[in-house]
Amino acid sequence: MGKMYIIAGPCSAESEQQVLTCAQAVKDAGCDVFRAGLWKPRTSPSSFAGVGAEGLPWLERVQKEIGINAATEIATAEHLNLCLEHNITHLWIGARTTANPFMVQQIADAAEQSGRTTELTMMVKNPMHPDIEAWIGAIQRLQKAGVEKIIAIHRGFSDTISSTATTCSMRNDPLWSLVMSLKRRLPNIPLICDPSHLTGNSELVLELSQQAVNLGMEGLMIEVHPNPQNALSDAKQQIDLEQLRTLLNSLVIPHSHTNDIALQALRHEIDRIDNTIWNLILERLETAEQIGHIKHKAGMPVYQNDRYSTLLATRLKWAEENGLDQQAVKQIVEALHELAIAKQI
Ligand code: PEP
Ligand code: MN
Predict the structure, then answer these.
(1) Ligand 1 neighbour 95 (Cβ under 6 A)
(2) Ligand 2 centroid vs 336 CA: distance in angstroms?
(3) Distance of alpha carbon 25 from alpha carbon 30, whole angstroms
(4) 197 lines ligand 1 (CB under 6 A)
(5) Nearest CA to ligand 1 atom 10
(6) Of 85, 93, 71, 57, which is closest to residue 26 (Cα–Cα)?
(7) pTM of the model
(8) In angstroms, what is the span from residue 95 Cα to ligand 1's centroid?
(9) Is pLDDT above 80 for 164?
């Protein structure tokens, strides 16, 4: 299993027996942490909302008797304090809470006030909408409160403008390039993937997990249930205990280093191509500057919305025709346009 950080367990803690059975299997499969949701953020008020604080002693038993750390989702300062009272120190902030800076700040304040920040491992899921700043902001609030062990969890984004054909069969859109920009911005925060909430489909969990580790993600949070069909929440996406073992055995963990000559040659090729692109960008900027002179003489404004909209639309169409991520291409177009505008000003 390499050095992947694996968290597994049911979406929700349903009964003491279900928790203990599942935790034993998760531990035996070699996972690092057992997960089980106690307070469930549900869209509909008639859905199962979790057993709440009643399940805390169950998680304590998991830690004491089975010998694996237990993690649960917290959404309020009160949840954090209750968990600490029961020595549950592995906690995650769910997608719906990350989006709310007030809630995150209250949790961060409670962590600081507890005086136990060094014991905590806080995990932060990305918000539902593709707002990387809110995700980073939540992580920074915890850092400012003195929490040292922080992990980011990628669980996909709903409500995106660019669901591609491959992602629309899934519950959420991975927007891999956006997630990789989190890694660039916060290189010291481990990034793990939650293939269960991302796909919403137990049949796609293995494939998605492999994609995530191929991209360099450092771990996985997987929903697993002794009897997924009867799960009280997220029944469609939970795998069973046998499937967890199969998944962990079949996962191929890539090496981070190789001396392969072909790789080095291709990297030189990439450097050469980037150099060509760079020269083209300079050429584009010179042309933009000439356009700027003409606009100035004609008394036209530098920024013209119509022109930008047409330009963006054609580039997004090229992106679509070539199966490229629209969001990433849009960022390239925006950056090129900003450089050109700066030149013209
Ligand atoms: C969960 O982990 O059970 C959960 C509710 O996840 P998310 O916040 O990603 O929807
Ligand atoms: Mn779930």
Answers:
(1) yes
(2) 40
(3) 9
(4) yes
(5) 95
(6) 71
(7) 0.83
(8) 6
(9) no
